[in-house]
Amino acid sequence: MTPATRLRAAAFAVSALLVGALTGCTQGSKASTAAAPSSPSPAGNAAVALQSVFIDTIQKTLPSVVEIVTSNGLGSGVVIDSRGDIVTNDHVVGTSKTFKVGLSNTSTTYSATLVGTFPPDDLAVIRITNPAGLHPATLGDSSALKTGDIVMAMGNPLGLSSSVSEGIVSALGRTVNEPKDAQSPGATIPDAIQTSAAINPGNSGGALVNLAGEVIGIPTLAAVDPEIGGGTAAPGIGFAIASNMAKGIANQLIARGKVTNSGRAALGVSATNVVDAGGKPVGVGITAVVPNGPAARAGLAPADIITKLSSTPITSTQSLADALVTHTPGDKVSVTVISPTSKTPRTVTVTLEDLATAPAPT
Asked: Is 204 a catalytic residue?
């Protein structure tokens, strides 16, 4: 995964004020002292209570977070049932089919095999071969999150097993783009959770947890600072896949080994960026269409250049992916194209299908 931000630690100090009272005395009397009873400040009580919640949450949830070792590196995962099923990122799994899994509460290493992947949402499920002593996590309702909720990221950043960082939910409903690399085709993730909790390499596939000990997100990447460049992470900006999405995809992979209902809209084309002689983007050129897919049925063909989807100008494959994220399967959308035989734009109506059943052709 891309580089990530680092841990912001919070520390609290509690002090008590002792007030001494010296009694007045007359000649012949004994001088005496008395100390007023000490009492913690309200702020101190709140800090101790919050610390206790943090500790309880970590003790409850961390045993559900595992380290996944592949032939290409390591990442994290979350145990979601007693059968040994673990949800993680597709880019953690990469091209591997077998894995070594380490639990936080034992030194035993388990073998695991691939159940299935869904690269468009960067999700995968693997399964421990002989599960024993597992602590399945509780997957919470990510739709109940609010900006400002306190969360913790649990995983194995930089190979430091069972690490925890804290932060807040910084924003909801983000659409984020994961770059392609040797282990992943890249993805456009809708409805992502933005958090200030540190997400570093190795955190991918782990758990973003609320203070009820529920997993409400799967950490997947951190923003990169474009001004610094070189893949330098932007401090305090990480993203997680919402638990409701992860739950739906994981359940399908476990049941059938594949996804048939992603809730994501697809046009049914593969495409490439097109620029004019001066290098200015002019649209997206269709390189292939899914046979009998949405685009093919609407009369779109290879070499057509898409310039608009509904009211959204299309200038790159990423802008096309971003536009499709705002739609759902079954939506009818207008697509404006320029064909190679005519310079006059034409507009057709396309009925979008589910991304799981009408993917881009390979």
From this structure: yes
The whole-model pTM stands at 0.82
pLDDT at 27: 35
**CA-CA distance, 77 to 91, in Å (whole number)?**
12
The active-site residue, picked from 204, 243, 262, 319, is: 204
Residue 36, pLDDT score: 53
Please state, in angstroms and as integers, the Cα–Cα distance from residue 224 to each residue in 1, 179, 313, following that order: 11, 11, 26
* Candidates 91, 96, 304, 319; catalytic one: 91
| Cα dihedral sign, 211-216-217-223 | negative
What is the DSSP secondary structure assignment for residue 200, as one 8-state letter? -
Cα gap 208→242, rounded to integer Å: 9
Active site residue 135: no
For the question of residue 327 being annotated catalytic, the response is no
> Which listed residue (122, 142, 163, 184) is catalytic?
122
- Residue 115 token pair: 């159940």
In angstroms, the CA 127 to CA 313 distance is: 43
Half-sphere exposure of 60 (CA within 13 A, CB side): 17
Q: What distances in angstroms separate CA 310 from CA 280, 328, 335, 344, 354, one per listed residue?
A: 22, 13, 6, 18, 18
Residue-level pLDDT at 106? 78
Q: Please tell me the predicted confidence (pLDDT) of residue 150.
A: 97
| Residue 197 phi, psi dihedral angles, 5° rounding | -65, 135
Q: What is the mean pLDDT of each run of 10 residues along the chain (362 residues)?
A: 30 27 33 52 82 94 95 94 97 95 87 96 95 92 97 92 94 91 83 94 94 97 72 83 97 96 95 93 95 95 96 94 94 95 91 88 60
H/E stretch holding 319 reads helix 317-325
Q: In this predicted structure, what is the pLDDT of residue 227?
A: 67
Residue from 242, 233, 244, 216 nearest 149 by CA: 216
- Residue 2 is predicted with a pLDDT of 35
Q: Contact 262/121 with Cβ under 8 angstroms?
A: yes
CA distance 250 to 77: 12
Q: Residue 291: how many CB atoms within 10 A of its CB? A: 9
